[in-house]
Amino acid sequence: MLGIQNHRLTGPDVSFRPTPNVGGAMRPQFVVLHYTAGRTLESSVESLCTKKPQGNASSHIVLGRDGRIVQLAPFNAVTWHAGVSQWNGIDGLNHHAIGIEMDNAGLLHREGERCVSWFGKAYPDNEVVVAEHRHGGGVRPWHNFTEVQIERALQLCEVLVAHYGLKDVLGHEDIARGRKVDPGPAFPLAAVRSRALGRGGDAAVRLVVTSTTLNIRSGPSADFPKVAPALKRGAELVLLEPQDRWSRVAVVGVTDLEGWVCNDFVARQAATRSGAGVLSRSQRAVPVATRARAPASAPAKKRAAPAKKSNTTTRARR
Ligand SMILES: [Zn+2]
Protein backbone atom coordinates (compact mmCIF):
# COMPACT_ATOMS: atom_id res chain seq x y z
CA MET A 1 0.00 0.00 0.00
CA LEU A 2 1.30 3.45 -0.90
CA GLY A 3 1.77 6.21 1.64
CA ILE A 4 3.37 9.67 1.79
CA GLN A 5 5.90 10.83 4.36
CA ASN A 6 7.61 14.18 4.20
CA HIS A 7 6.42 14.65 0.59
CA ARG A 8 7.94 11.34 -0.43
CA LEU A 9 6.08 8.25 -1.52
CA THR A 10 6.47 5.09 0.56
CA GLY A 11 5.52 1.54 -0.34
CA PRO A 12 6.62 -1.50 -2.30
CA ASP A 13 8.54 -1.03 -5.56
CA VAL A 14 9.01 2.68 -4.91
CA SER A 15 12.43 4.31 -5.28
CA PHE A 16 13.73 7.86 -5.23
CA ARG A 17 16.17 9.36 -7.69
CA PRO A 18 16.51 13.13 -7.43
CA THR A 19 16.32 15.15 -10.63
CA PRO A 20 18.19 18.45 -10.94
CA ASN A 21 15.26 19.79 -12.99
CA VAL A 22 13.23 21.32 -10.18
CA GLY A 23 11.88 24.77 -9.35
CA GLY A 24 10.79 26.32 -6.07
CA ALA A 25 8.28 25.28 -3.46
CA MET A 26 4.74 24.32 -4.43
CA ARG A 27 1.45 23.52 -2.72
CA PRO A 28 -0.13 20.98 -5.07
CA GLN A 29 -3.79 21.32 -6.06
CA PHE A 30 -3.91 18.89 -8.97
CA VAL A 31 -2.30 15.79 -10.35
CA VAL A 32 -1.55 15.66 -14.08
CA LEU A 33 -1.10 12.34 -15.88
CA HIS A 34 1.18 11.93 -18.90
CA TYR A 35 2.71 9.30 -21.07
CA THR A 36 6.45 9.45 -21.57
CA ALA A 37 6.45 8.67 -25.32
CA GLY A 38 9.64 6.87 -24.37
CA ARG A 39 11.33 3.52 -24.77
CA THR A 40 11.59 2.23 -21.20
CA LEU A 41 11.15 3.30 -17.58
CA GLU A 42 14.92 3.62 -17.24
CA SER A 43 15.40 5.72 -20.38
CA SER A 44 12.62 8.08 -19.34
CA VAL A 45 13.99 8.47 -15.80
CA GLU A 46 17.42 9.19 -17.30
CA SER A 47 15.98 11.81 -19.64
CA LEU A 48 13.96 13.53 -16.90
CA CYS A 49 17.06 13.66 -14.67
CA THR A 50 19.24 15.30 -17.34
CA LYS A 51 19.79 18.99 -17.97
CA LYS A 52 19.39 19.75 -21.66
CA PRO A 53 20.31 22.78 -23.74
CA GLN A 54 16.95 22.68 -25.56
CA GLY A 55 14.99 22.91 -22.29
CA ASN A 56 14.71 20.82 -19.17
CA ALA A 57 11.83 18.49 -18.42
CA SER A 58 10.98 16.57 -15.28
CA SER A 59 8.09 15.15 -13.28
CA HIS A 60 7.50 13.98 -9.74
CA ILE A 61 6.84 10.35 -10.63
CA VAL A 62 7.70 7.95 -13.43
CA LEU A 63 5.52 4.83 -13.46
CA GLY A 64 6.78 1.69 -15.18
CA ARG A 65 4.79 -0.83 -17.20
CA ASP A 66 5.51 -3.39 -14.48
CA GLY A 67 4.18 -1.08 -11.74
CA ARG A 68 7.56 0.12 -10.46
CA ILE A 69 7.54 3.74 -9.33
CA VAL A 70 10.50 6.12 -9.39
CA GLN A 71 10.03 9.45 -7.63
CA LEU A 72 12.23 12.25 -8.96
CA ALA A 73 11.28 15.18 -6.71
CA PRO A 74 9.35 15.74 -3.46
CA PHE A 75 5.69 16.56 -4.03
CA ASN A 76 6.08 20.07 -2.63
CA ALA A 77 8.64 21.10 -5.27
CA VAL A 78 7.85 22.40 -8.76
CA THR A 79 8.77 20.08 -11.62
CA TRP A 80 8.53 20.80 -15.33
CA HIS A 81 5.99 18.51 -16.96
CA ALA A 82 3.05 20.69 -17.99
CA GLY A 83 4.54 23.49 -20.12
CA VAL A 84 2.16 26.17 -21.34
CA SER A 85 -1.11 25.11 -19.73
CA GLN A 86 -4.39 26.33 -18.26
CA TRP A 87 -7.13 24.86 -16.12
CA ASN A 88 -10.15 26.64 -14.64
CA GLY A 89 -8.54 30.05 -14.87
CA ILE A 90 -5.16 28.89 -13.53
CA ASP A 91 -2.15 29.34 -15.84
CA GLY A 92 1.09 27.37 -15.71
CA LEU A 93 0.10 24.12 -14.01
CA ASN A 94 3.73 23.27 -13.18
CA HIS A 95 3.33 25.56 -10.19
CA HIS A 96 0.18 23.81 -8.98
CA ALA A 97 0.34 20.18 -10.04
CA ILE A 98 2.05 16.90 -9.29
CA GLY A 99 3.21 15.29 -12.55
CA ILE A 100 3.01 11.55 -13.17
CA GLU A 101 4.75 10.24 -16.28
CA MET A 102 3.72 6.73 -17.35
CA ASP A 103 6.10 4.63 -19.44
CA ASN A 104 4.32 4.30 -22.76
CA ALA A 105 5.38 4.83 -26.37
CA GLY A 106 2.35 7.03 -27.05
CA LEU A 107 0.77 7.62 -30.42
CA LEU A 108 1.93 5.04 -32.96
CA HIS A 109 1.81 5.09 -36.75
CA ARG A 110 1.27 2.38 -39.32
CA GLU A 111 4.09 1.06 -41.47
CA GLY A 112 2.40 -1.57 -43.62
CA GLU A 113 0.95 -4.12 -41.19
CA ARG A 114 2.97 -2.88 -38.24
CA CYS A 115 2.28 -0.23 -35.59
CA VAL A 116 5.47 1.67 -34.92
CA SER A 117 6.53 4.33 -32.42
CA TRP A 118 8.25 7.59 -33.31
CA PHE A 119 11.55 5.96 -32.32
CA GLY A 120 11.02 3.07 -34.73
CA LYS A 121 9.93 0.22 -32.47
CA ALA A 122 7.07 -1.99 -33.67
CA TYR A 123 4.44 -3.15 -31.14
CA PRO A 124 2.40 -6.38 -31.31
CA ASP A 125 -1.39 -6.19 -31.68
CA ASN A 126 -1.98 -7.01 -28.01
CA GLU A 127 -0.08 -3.86 -27.02
CA VAL A 128 -1.98 -1.58 -29.38
CA VAL A 129 -5.27 0.22 -28.73
CA VAL A 130 -6.95 1.55 -31.88
CA ALA A 131 -9.15 4.48 -30.93
CA GLU A 132 -10.00 8.08 -31.61
CA HIS A 133 -8.84 10.70 -29.12
CA ARG A 134 -11.72 12.47 -27.38
CA HIS A 135 -10.42 15.69 -28.93
CA GLY A 136 -10.64 14.18 -32.42
CA GLY A 137 -7.95 13.41 -34.97
CA GLY A 138 -9.48 10.22 -36.31
CA VAL A 139 -9.01 6.59 -35.33
CA ARG A 140 -5.32 5.90 -34.71
CA PRO A 141 -3.12 3.30 -32.98
CA TRP A 142 -1.85 4.00 -29.45
CA HIS A 143 0.48 2.02 -27.21
CA ASN A 144 -1.53 0.33 -24.46
CA PHE A 145 -1.07 0.73 -20.70
CA THR A 146 -0.67 -2.47 -18.69
CA GLU A 147 -3.26 -3.43 -16.07
CA VAL A 148 -0.76 -3.18 -13.24
CA GLN A 149 0.28 0.25 -14.48
CA ILE A 150 -3.32 1.51 -14.53
CA GLU A 151 -3.91 0.03 -11.08
CA ARG A 152 -0.80 1.74 -9.69
CA ALA A 153 -1.76 5.03 -11.35
CA LEU A 154 -5.14 4.81 -9.60
CA GLN A 155 -3.47 4.05 -6.24
CA LEU A 156 -1.09 6.97 -6.75
CA CYS A 157 -3.92 9.35 -7.54
CA GLU A 158 -5.91 8.12 -4.53
CA VAL A 159 -3.09 8.61 -2.06
CA LEU A 160 -2.17 12.01 -3.51
CA VAL A 161 -5.78 13.24 -3.52
CA ALA A 162 -6.29 12.07 0.07
CA HIS A 163 -2.98 13.41 1.38
CA TYR A 164 -3.02 16.82 -0.28
CA GLY A 165 -6.77 17.29 -0.68
CA LEU A 166 -6.23 17.73 -4.42
CA LYS A 167 -9.01 19.38 -6.40
CA ASP A 168 -8.77 17.30 -9.54
CA VAL A 169 -7.07 14.54 -11.50
CA LEU A 170 -6.23 15.74 -15.01
CA GLY A 171 -4.53 14.64 -18.20
CA HIS A 172 -1.93 16.72 -20.01
CA GLU A 173 -4.49 16.69 -22.83
CA ASP A 174 -6.93 18.59 -20.54
CA ILE A 175 -4.57 21.43 -19.63
CA ALA A 176 -2.73 21.87 -22.95
CA ARG A 177 -5.60 21.29 -25.36
CA GLY A 178 -4.59 21.31 -29.00
CA ARG A 179 -0.93 20.96 -28.05
CA LYS A 180 -0.83 17.67 -26.12
CA VAL A 181 -2.73 14.38 -26.48
CA ASP A 182 -1.34 12.42 -23.54
CA PRO A 183 -2.24 10.19 -21.78
CA GLY A 184 -4.68 9.63 -24.68
CA PRO A 185 -7.50 7.15 -25.35
CA ALA A 186 -5.60 4.04 -24.25
CA PHE A 187 -5.70 5.29 -20.65
CA PRO A 188 -9.04 5.19 -18.72
CA LEU A 189 -8.66 8.74 -17.43
CA ALA A 190 -12.34 9.41 -16.67
CA ALA A 191 -12.66 6.26 -14.57
CA VAL A 192 -9.41 6.85 -12.71
CA ARG A 193 -10.42 10.46 -12.09
CA SER A 194 -13.87 9.66 -10.72
CA ARG A 195 -12.60 6.83 -8.55
CA ALA A 196 -9.62 8.78 -7.22
CA LEU A 197 -11.89 11.70 -6.37
CA GLY A 198 -14.55 9.40 -4.94
CA ARG A 199 -17.23 10.82 -7.21
CA GLY A 200 -19.63 8.63 -9.07
CA GLY A 201 -17.36 5.61 -9.39
CA ASP A 202 -18.81 2.15 -8.95
CA ALA A 203 -17.11 1.90 -5.56
CA ALA A 204 -18.35 5.27 -4.29
CA VAL A 205 -19.79 5.16 -0.78
CA ARG A 206 -22.88 7.32 -0.35
CA LEU A 207 -23.92 8.86 2.93
CA VAL A 208 -27.15 10.53 3.95
CA VAL A 209 -27.62 13.25 6.59
CA THR A 210 -29.65 11.89 9.54
CA SER A 211 -29.91 14.97 11.76
CA THR A 212 -32.28 17.89 11.12
CA THR A 213 -29.38 19.99 9.93
CA LEU A 214 -25.65 19.32 9.70
CA ASN A 215 -22.80 21.77 9.34
CA ILE A 216 -20.18 21.17 6.66
CA ARG A 217 -16.78 22.54 7.62
CA SER A 218 -13.36 23.15 6.10
CA GLY A 219 -11.63 20.64 8.39
CA PRO A 220 -12.27 17.61 10.61
CA SER A 221 -13.47 19.29 13.83
CA ALA A 222 -16.08 21.79 15.02
CA ASP A 223 -13.28 24.38 15.29
CA PHE A 224 -13.12 24.76 11.52
CA PRO A 225 -15.31 27.34 9.75
CA LYS A 226 -18.45 26.33 7.84
CA VAL A 227 -17.98 26.17 4.07
CA ALA A 228 -21.68 26.45 3.16
CA PRO A 229 -25.14 26.74 4.74
CA ALA A 230 -26.04 23.71 6.89
CA LEU A 231 -27.10 20.56 5.06
CA LYS A 232 -30.67 19.33 5.58
CA ARG A 233 -31.83 15.90 6.72
CA GLY A 234 -31.76 13.50 3.76
CA ALA A 235 -29.03 15.36 1.87
CA GLU A 236 -26.86 12.88 -0.03
CA LEU A 237 -23.08 12.87 0.23
CA VAL A 238 -20.23 10.98 -1.43
CA LEU A 239 -17.56 9.80 0.99
CA LEU A 240 -14.12 11.06 -0.07
CA GLU A 241 -11.94 10.53 2.99
CA PRO A 242 -13.18 8.79 6.14
CA GLN A 243 -11.52 9.48 9.48
CA ASP A 244 -12.37 8.36 13.03
CA ARG A 245 -14.98 10.97 13.88
CA TRP A 246 -15.23 13.11 10.75
CA SER A 247 -15.34 12.45 7.03
CA ARG A 248 -14.50 14.57 4.02
CA VAL A 249 -17.46 14.46 1.65
CA ALA A 250 -18.77 15.90 -1.59
CA VAL A 251 -22.39 17.00 -1.62
CA VAL A 252 -24.39 15.26 -4.34
CA GLY A 253 -26.02 17.64 -6.79
CA VAL A 254 -24.03 20.70 -5.71
CA THR A 255 -21.09 21.47 -7.96
CA ASP A 256 -17.76 21.42 -6.18
CA LEU A 257 -19.16 21.60 -2.63
CA GLU A 258 -16.81 19.56 -0.48
CA GLY A 259 -16.10 19.67 3.22
CA TRP A 260 -16.00 17.77 6.50
CA VAL A 261 -18.99 16.43 8.44
CA CYS A 262 -19.21 14.66 11.79
CA ASN A 263 -19.81 10.91 11.41
CA ASP A 264 -22.40 10.94 14.23
CA PHE A 265 -24.95 12.61 11.97
CA VAL A 266 -24.64 10.59 8.75
CA ALA A 267 -25.48 7.02 7.75
CA ARG A 268 -24.26 4.85 4.91
CA GLN A 269 -26.46 4.11 1.92
CA ALA A 270 -26.15 1.13 -0.37
CA ALA A 271 -23.37 1.56 -2.94
CA THR A 272 -24.42 2.93 -6.30
CA ARG A 273 -23.43 1.37 -9.59
CA SER A 274 -23.76 4.37 -11.84
CA GLY A 275 -20.20 4.75 -13.05
CA ALA A 276 -19.29 1.16 -13.82
CA GLY A 277 -17.61 -0.11 -16.89
CA VAL A 278 -14.49 1.77 -17.86
CA LEU A 279 -11.77 0.04 -15.90
CA SER A 280 -10.80 -3.47 -16.81
CA ARG A 281 -12.26 -6.47 -15.04
CA SER A 282 -9.43 -6.94 -12.58
CA GLN A 283 -9.63 -3.33 -11.48
CA ARG A 284 -13.36 -3.50 -10.92
CA ALA A 285 -13.07 -6.70 -8.90
CA VAL A 286 -11.89 -4.95 -5.74
CA PRO A 287 -13.65 -1.74 -4.72
CA VAL A 288 -11.26 1.15 -4.33
CA ALA A 289 -12.58 2.16 -0.93
CA THR A 290 -12.14 -1.32 0.47
CA ARG A 291 -8.67 -1.77 -0.92
CA ALA A 292 -7.27 1.61 -0.01
CA ARG A 293 -8.96 2.17 3.31
CA ALA A 294 -9.57 -1.22 4.87
CA PRO A 295 -9.11 -0.90 8.65
CA ALA A 296 -6.92 -4.01 8.73
CA SER A 297 -4.18 -2.35 6.70
CA ALA A 298 -4.69 1.27 7.75
CA PRO A 299 -2.45 2.89 10.33
CA ALA A 300 -4.12 2.87 13.74
CA LYS A 301 -4.24 6.63 14.19
CA LYS A 302 -5.99 7.16 10.88
CA ARG A 303 -8.19 4.10 10.82
CA ALA A 304 -11.18 4.33 8.55
CA ALA A 305 -14.24 4.15 10.76
CA PRO A 306 -17.45 3.34 8.94
CA ALA A 307 -20.18 5.91 9.47
CA LYS A 308 -22.61 4.80 12.16
CA LYS A 309 -25.69 3.17 10.74
CA SER A 310 -28.25 3.45 13.49
CA ASN A 311 -27.83 7.06 14.48
CA THR A 312 -30.89 9.08 13.59
CA THR A 313 -30.46 11.68 16.28
CA THR A 314 -31.63 15.27 16.11
CA ARG A 315 -29.12 16.32 18.76
CA ALA A 316 -27.24 19.55 18.37
CA ARG A 317 -25.33 19.47 15.12
CA ARG A 318 -21.59 19.78 15.03
ZN1 LIG B 1 2.63 15.21 -21.11
Could you characterize what this model shows?
The protein is of the alpha+beta class and 318 residues long. The protein folds into two domains: 3-197, Lysozyme-like (3-Layer(aba) Sandwich); 206-302, SH3 type barrels (Roll). The protein contains six helices and 24 strands. It has helices at residues 41-48, 147-164, 172-175, 189-197, 281-285, 288-293, and strands at 3-5, 8-10, 14-16, 22-25, 30-35, 61-63, 69-71, 77-79, 86-87, 90-91, 97-102, 109-111, 114-116, 122-123, 128-133, 136-143, 168-171, 206-209, 213-214, 231-232, 236-242, 246-251, 258-262, 266-268. The longest helix is centred in the middle third of the chain and has 18 residues, at 147-164. The two termini are 33 Å apart. It binds zinc ion. Zinc ion binds at residues 34, 172, 180, 182.
Major sheet details: 6 strands, mixed
Instruction: Write out the distinct hetero groups bound to the structure.
Output: zinc ion
CATH architecture of the largest domain: 3-Layer(aba) Sandwich
What's the CATH first level of the largest domain?
Alpha Beta
What's the number of domains? 2
Strand order of the largest sheet: 3-7-6-11-5-17
